[in-house]
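Friendly challenge for the regulars: who can give me the C-alpha cells for this chain first? No prize, just bragging rights.
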Amino acid sequence: MELRRAFRVNGFLMLVVLLIVGAAGLIGGITASGSAANGGGAEASAGAVIGYIVLGVAVLGLTGLATVGPNEAKVLQFFGKYIGSVSDAGFFWVVPLTAKRRISLRVRNFETQKLKVNDSDGNPVEIAAVVVYRVVDSFKAAFSVDDYEEYVRTQSETAVRHLATTHPYDAAPDAGSHLVTQTAEASAADPSRTSLRNGAEVAEELTAELRERTEMAGIDILEARITHLAYAPEIAQSMLVRQQASQVVAARSRIVDGAVGMVGMALQRLSDEGMVELDEERKASMVSNLLVVLCGDRAAQPVVNTGTLYS
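First reply, four minutes later:
Bragging rights claimed.
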C-alpha cells in the first residue's frame, strides 16, 4: 500500500445537513410515536422506528467530522483498514466510524546524546549531532514503524556512531611534526581522508546516510550537523600536549625556513654588489651567526670581536 488521499467533504456543509436530518428524524419519530400511542396503528409505529433510525444515522454521521490543522495530516482507518490520509488544513467530513491518527508534518529538530566512540584511528572521542527532519509520507510514518520519532532518534545515533568510526578526528598530523605515531603517518599518506572536523563534508555525508536510513519511515532529513566534538576526557590532556608540541615544531620549522631564505638572500646580495669578499670559512661563520640571531627565541647578545677570524 502507499499514501493516498482520503474521501472528504466540506465539514460545515455536512454538519448542517446532518443537523437537519437528525432534527427531522427526531421530530418525525416523536410525532409518529404520539400517533401510535393514540391508536395510529402499524404505519405510525413503522414511522416512529424510521424516524429514530434516521436520527441514529445522523448521530453516527457526526463521527465523520474531523479538523486538520496546518502542517498536519490525519491518517484514517476504517475498522483497521487504511482508507487514506487528509493533509489539507480545514474542517472536513470523512467516512464515519474511522479511527483518525494525527501525524505532524512540521519541521522538527533534536540533538543526539553525547556519544563516546573510537574514531578510525582508535582514539576515543565524544560526538553529538543535531538532526532536522519532517514527515513527508504520513502512511509510512504511521504504519512502517512503531514510533517514527523514536525511530529517527535511534537511526540518528547509529549514523553518528558509524560516521565517527569511519573518520579520524584529524585527517593528518600537524604541519612540521616529525615525531608522529605510525597511525598519524598512515593518515598523512592518505590526505584524501575526511576528518570529523571538516564540518561541511561531514554534515553532507551524515545527512545522506540518514536519508537512506529513514526513507522507509516516510521521513525527509533536511540537515544533520555535528554540534559537539572533543577527545574523551581520559586522553584529552595528552592530545592537548601533542597538539601544542606539534604547533611548536610547526612554528620552528617555519622560522627556520624563513631564516635560511634570509641568509641565502643576504649572501647573494653581498656577492652581487661586491661589498665584501668572503671565503667559505667566513661564509660559514656568517651563516652561523645569522641563524643564531634569526632562529633564537631570545634577544641576541652582541659580542665585539677585536681580533680576526683566524687569530
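Residues 19 and 141 are 35 Å apart (CA to CA). Confidence is low (pLDDT under 50) at residues 174-189. Your move, everyone else.
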